[in-house]
Amino acid sequence: MKKISICFILFLGFVRIAAQKDSIFIDARFSEDKRVLNISQRLVYYNNSGNDLNVIKLLNWISAYNKRGTSLVYRKLEDRNSDLHFAKPEQLGKLLELEIKNREDSVSISNLSDENLYIPLPQSLKPGESTQIELQYQIQLPDKKFTGYGISGQDIALKYFFLVPDHFDPDNSFKKVYYDIEESVSFNTYWNVNFDMPSDYFIQSGLPQVEAHLFRGYLNSDPEFLISKIEYPSIKINTKDIHTDIYFGYNLTLQDKENLEFYLPLHLSFIKDRMGSIPDKLFISNKFRANEDFFGNNDIHFWKFRFQLFSNAEKIDLDYFGIIAKKILDENIITDKQDNHWFKNGLKSYLEIQYLKKFYPDTKLLGSLPETRIFGVKPLKLFHASRVNLIERYGLAYQYIAAQNLDQKINSTYTVLSNFNDMAISSFETGSLFNYSAEKMGADRFEAVAKNYISKNNDQQIHAQDFLKELAEKEKTTDYLASFFQQKNRVNFKLKRFKRNDDSLHINIYKNTPLDIPVKLDTQSKNGERKSYWVETPENDHIKTVTIPAQDVYKITLNDDFIFPETKYRDNFLYAKGLFSNTKKIKLKLLKDIPNPEYNEIYISPRIRFSNTYDKFLFGINFKNQSLFDQKFLYSITPMYSSGTGKLTGSGAVSYSILPAESIIRSLTFGVSGSYFHYDYDLSYKKSSIFSNINFRKNPRSTVSRGISLSYNYFERDLSPIMAANRDYSRYNLWSAGYGYTDNQMIHEKSFSISAQGMKDFNKITAEGFYRWEFAPKQKLSLRLFAGYFINNDTRNNTFNYGISRVSNYSFSYSLLGESATGGILSQQFILADGGFKSFLPGSVNQWITSFNVDSSVWKIFHVYADAGIYKNKNASTEFIWDSGIKVKLIPDFLEIYFPIQSSLGFEPSFKDYAKRIRYTLVLNLGAIINAARRGWY
Fold first, then answer.
1. Residue 13 has what pLDDT?
2. % helix, strand, coil for the chain, step of 5
3. Separation CA 389–CA 350 (nearest Å)
C-alpha cells in the first residue's frame, strides 16, 4: 500500500510537471481573396519563470512585414534584396484588428504594428500558475516572395504569423524581433489548429493531421502550414525500426521520387544510429530545402552549355541527407538559435562528413567535371582543385574566409554572422571540430555522448556549452573546445626540422597556442603506405618532440585533408628523403587554383590587355604566388611587351599583410611596387612606390569599410621638346595620406574620403562625399560634393592642378585610354574625379574649388545630371560654372555615356562639334565587378 501511494504521488508530480506546457487553440478562416486570415485563438499560458508576472509578451511577427525600417527589412537589404523595402501596401503583412480577453477582462493594445505586444494581467501570475487568454484578430498576409511565407499565386505558407509567447524569454523581459532566420520561439507547445476552408484545398504541416484541415499535437519547433489546391507528394518509410512519413511542400519528378524512396531509408537509418530517435512525421518545405541543401553540387551553366558535376542520383543523395539531418535535429533539439546556432549546424556538418567518409570517400570536390573533354583534352586535370576530395570542402571553406580575416567566432550571435560565415563557421568549422574530436576519441564514443545528451534533454531547452562540458568529461583532449568556440581561431601547427637518429625520426611540432590541442601526424612511404599517430600537445608548451620509426618514411604531414580548421596548412608538410628533405617542393602552375599546401607554388600566367593608345595591347607573363585564397606575403611580377611602342614594359609589387584576429584593425599591409609604361607617343614613365594601408575591422554582415592609406611615390617621365622648353616636371616625388569610409548598403549608399598630398612645390588637401539613394526599384539619385584646396602652390605649370572636366593624371592612378590626348574620342573619356563636370569647360584650378554633382534616374537606363561649382585661381576672381545633360547607363558604373545639353557655355547641342562633346566612362576592372557581385555574402 505504501509503494502504491508513493507511485501515485510521483505520478501526480509527473502530470503536474508535464502540464507546464502552453496550449494554443486556433480556428482560422480566410477571406474570399485569401489575403486576410481571421483567427479565433485561445492561449493557455503557464508562468515557467521564477518570478511573478504582471504582463505577458506575445510575438506579433506579422508586423515585421508592415513597414520600412523593421529588422526584417534591414536584413533583407543586407542580403541585397529590396523587394520588401519597395513593396506595395497590398503586398505587406500586418495585424489589422485585435480583441483580447484575459478571462472576462478586455485588454486594449494601442500599437498593433509593434512586433512585441505586452498584455497586462489583472493580477500577478505566480510561478507554475496558468492563465487563459482569448484573442480575436485579423492578419493581412504578406507576399510569399519576401521570406517564403505568405501568399502566392500557387499556395499559402503560414509560419510565425500567429500571436504566440516567446518561450526563450519566460520573464517577458526583452523584446524579440523577426529576422527570418528560422528560429524557434513557441517550442514544446500543444497545438490545435483548425482551418475553415473548402474541401478542395490540401494542407500540409509538421503537426499530426487529425482530419483534412485539423491538426493537433506537440511540436518542438514552430508549426508550418502549406495550403494549396495541389496535393504535394509524400513518402512513407517503414523499415524494421523506423516508421516515418515525410511530406514535401513542392512537386517531385518521378525520377527524384524514385531516388528518394531508395535513399531516404538509408539516410534515416544512418542518422538514427548516430543521433538517436527519428520523428514520426517530417515536413520539408521548399524554403527549408533551399536553405539546407548541399552547397556546391549544382550543375554549371555557361551560355548554351551545361556541365554536370554529379549525377542526378548523387545530387539527390547529397542534398537530402543534409536536409533530412537538419530537420531531425530541429525537431529533436530545443535551443536558442541566436546563441547556440553552432550546435545543430555543427552536428549536421558532422553527420555529412561521416556520410561522405562512408559513401563518398574518394569523390572529388568538382565531381566528374574534371573528366570533361574540350577538344579532346581534359583541361581541368591541370588544376589541383580537380584532385581535392569532396570531404575537404569543410576545411577549405573555413580557410578561404579566415585568410581574409573575415571569419567570426563560432559562438557569435547568429544575426551578426555573414551569410558565408553561417556556412563556413557555424556549420563547417564546428562540424570539422566535432569530426576531429570523434577521430581522436573514436566516432562511437563521440556519437554516444551526442545521442545521450539529445535524449536526456528531449522536450526541454538546452545550452550547447553543456554538451561541450559533457564531451570533455568523456574525453579530456576535447577540453579546449569550450574556450576555442569563444574566439576567432588562429591556431597553427607547424612541422619544424626533424632529425634522423638510427632508425628513428625525431620530429619537432610547433603550435602557436597555449591550448592542449591534440594533433594528427601522418607518415607516408614512396609506395603510398600510410601510418597515423595522435600527438597530445601539453598545455602552455609550444614545442612537442615526437619520436617515430623511420622505416621507409618519405613524407610527414600534420592534420592532412584539412581535418582541423587551421589558418595555415603550408607548414604542415615535410619530406624525409630526397633533394627536398626538410623543406618544401616548388611547383610552377599556369592559372590560379585552390592552393596545394604541400608545395611552394608559383603561378605563371599569360597576360594580354589593352592599356592605352600608346602602349596599345600589352603581351606578357605574370609571375605571382597568389592562389584563389589570400595570403599574407604576396608578390607579382609582370614583364610585358608593348605592341604600341615595341618596347618592354611591365610592373611588379611585393606586399606583406598583418591580420590580427581580435583588433580594431582587420589588415595592416606594407608594400613596394614599381611600373614602367607610356603616357604619350614615345614618352614613358616610371613609378616607384612605398605604401601602407590599414583596413579597420568590420562586421562581415555590414557594408561599411574604413581605411587609412599612406604612400610615397617617385616618378620619372620622358618629356617632349615642348614640355622640356616649358620646364615641365621630369622627376618628382609625391607623398600622400588619406582616410576613406564607404557604406555600400543597398538603398542609401554613401562614402567619404579626405586626403592630403604634397611635394616640395605644393601641398593640398582634398575631400569628397558621395551619396546614392535608390528611391524606387533600380531608380537612383546620386549626390556628390567635392572640395579641394592648395595650402601652398609654387608649381611651374598646371600639371598638379585640380581638374574641372578632365583630371590631370600626374600620379598615373587613373585608367585613361588616351593619357595625353587633347582631341578625338580618347580625349572624351570621363573620370568622376576632381570637379566632375561632364561638359568640356576650359581650364584647371590652382587655388581652390568646390563642386556639386547630381545624377538622377528618369526612365530605365536614362538619367539626367547637373553639375555646379565655384572655383578660384591665383590672381583671378571667383568663377561660377555649371552644366547639365542626359546620361545613358549601358552598364552601371562601368560603361556610361553623357550627352551635354545646357551649360555655362550655352546650349551645347547647337554647337557644330557637338559629337566631340559627348563623354563616356569605361572601366575595365574585373576586380571591381567581382567585388560588386559578392556583396551580401561578406
1. 41
2. 25, 40, 40
3. 16
Provide the 10 A C-beta neighbour count for residue 70: 20
117 burial via Cβ count (<10 Å: 0-12, 13-18, 19+): buried
What is the model's pLDDT at position 503? 84
| DSSP structural state of residue 918 | -
How far apart CA 917 and CA 837 sit, in angstroms, is: 12
938's CB contacts (< 8 A; 6+ apart) are: 401, 404, 406, 418, 419, 420, 421, 700
The cell numbers describing 838, all together, are 561632364
pTM (2 d.p.):
0.91
Q: Are 757 and 764 in contact (CB under 8 A)?
A: yes
**What letter would DSSP give residue 536?**
P
Minimal CA–CA distance to 934: which of 401, 287, 304, 305?
401
Question: For residues 174-212, b (16+ Cβ closer than 10 Å) or e, as one string?
Answer: eebbbbbebbbbbbbbebbbbbebeeebbbbbbbebeee
Count of beta carbons in the 10 Å neighbourhood of residue 629: 16
28's grid cell:
482560422
Name the amino acid, one letter, at 454: I
Terminal CA-to-CA distance of the chain, rounded, Å?
Answer: 68
C-alpha 385, offset from chain centre:
22
Distance CA 394, CA 390 (A): 9
Cell of 123: 493580477
d(CA 182, CA 292): 11
Please report where in the chains the cell 555522448 appears, as a residue. Answer: 449
Q: How far is CA 840 from the centre of its chain?
A: 43
Q: Residue 546 class from Cβ within 10 Å (0-12 exposed, 13-18 middle, 19+ buried)?
A: middle
Task: Please provide residue 63's backbone torsions phi and psi, each rounded to the nearest 5 degrees.
Answer: -75, -10
Q: Max Cα separation, the chain?
A: 121
Q: Position 852: which residue type?
A: F
What distance lies between CA 127 and its chain's CA centroid?
43
Taking the chain (938 residues) in consecutive chunks of 10 residues, what is each chunk's mean pLDDT? 40 44 95 95 94 94 94 94 94 95 84 94 92 96 96 94 94 94 91 94 95 93 95 95 95 96 97 94 96 90 84 96 97 94 97 97 93 86 92 93 92 94 95 96 96 92 94 94 92 87 88 92 88 90 89 88 90 78 79 89 91 92 92 95 95 96 93 96 95 93 94 95 90 96 94 96 97 93 97 94 93 88 88 95 95 95 96 95 95 88 96 94 64 52
Burial call 874-908: b when 16+ CB within 10 Å, e when fewer: eeeeebebbbbbebebeeeeeebbbbbeebbbeeb
Distance CA 127, CA 130 (A): 8
Q: Cell numbers of 32, please?
A: 474570399
Question: What span, in angstroms and rounded, lies between the C-alpha atoms of 295 and 131?
Answer: 46
- pLDDT value at residue 9: 39
Secondary structure class of 874 (helix, strand, coil): coil
Distance, CA of 378 to CA of 279 (rounded, Å): 46
Q: Which residue's entry shows cell 484545398?
A: 201
> What are the residues whose beta carbons fall under 8 Å from the beta carbon of 757, sequence distance 6 or more?
734, 735, 736, 763, 764, 765, 766
| DSSP states of 252-320 | --HHHHHHHHHHHHHHHHHHHHHH----SEEEE-HHHHHHHS-TT-SPEEETTEEE-SS-HHHHHHHHH
Asked whether the beta carbons of 235 and 255 are under 8 A apart, the reply is no
Q: Which residue has the cell 562540458?
A: 469
Measured distance CA(520)–CA(747) in Å, rounded: 49
CA 864/CA 690 separation, integer angstroms:
41
Sequence-distant (6+) residues with CB within 8 A of 666 are 405, 406, 659, 695, 696, 697, 698
Q: What whole-number distance in Å separates Cα of residue 628 and Cα of residue 296?
A: 16
Check if the beta carbon of residue 38 is closer than 8 Å to that of residue 29. yes
- pLDDT value at residue 591: 85
CA distance 33 to 137: 17
Phi (first) and psi of residue 395, to 5 degrees: -75, -35
